[in-house]
Amino acid sequence: MNLPLVFIDGDQGTTGLQIHQRLRERTDLKLLTLPVTERKDPRRRAEALNACDITILCLPDAAAREAVDLIVNPAVRVIDASSAHRTHPDWTYGFPEMMPGQARHIAVAHRVTNPGCYPTGAIGLLRPLLQAGLIPGQYPISIHAVSGYSGGGRAAVETYEGRDAANASPYQVYGLGLAHKHVPEIQQHAGLVQRPIFVPAYGAFRQGIVLTIPLALRQLAPGTDAAALHACLARHYAGAPHVQVQSLEESSALTHLDPCALNGTDDLRLDVLANQEHGHVLLSAVFDNLGKGASGAAAQNLDLMLGRL
Asked: Has 58 been annotated as catalytic?
């Protein structure tokens, strides 16, 4: 039996290295790897891209688009880990738990775009609640997220782990122009009518994300409370092996949110935190930006496309 051939284009970047480490010991597929001297050779890359069964693109956006243009073999299937195609109508969004049937769509797709790390948490929280009508589509959504510095790629890792690491900022808020490239992706796949406000930050820890979305109950659908929001999320993700919806009791016992709590896993943990007296709710998502937020999502999509899940 011929094993499926998988080529990772860009396997020396943060996400590419993680995916390579996940796949290199597997016996149910074969990895196609180019020698160091050939990785930037357009001819050899084109040959590899057209010789494999599935290619995983771990490239900057422009390079990912160029790689897709190099594929002329109609049998080659693609998982793109960049943000180049996340809102493209011809690409399948690679968030299997996003809605019923999405895993089946991914399984048969020829072009799959991996979700962004921040959008994984935001869409994971918002889409079920918007679809159920609990959050109005016009609600002024505000999202804050803090990621480990690995989310900034090799340059950020070098800043925090290189010779000048002692001078690296312990915490930095960025995207101050409120035009982060993940915003259109969040708006489209969450089902928001209007553009959300998204404020991201990096902390002085390598990996992990905590993302929060505050809500005022008086602006939600009549009668909506924390219990209704929680029940909706729990129903939506019932049986999903990689999404944990903590009980209201577990959430109410929390005194802090640790962005590193799920590091080393491919899981997404969701909480609904409430202050009934003031009518406020905080939705939160915790996950590994290198797990469910990147390489773990790519591996999950690969297994769906290979019929392994």
From this structure: no
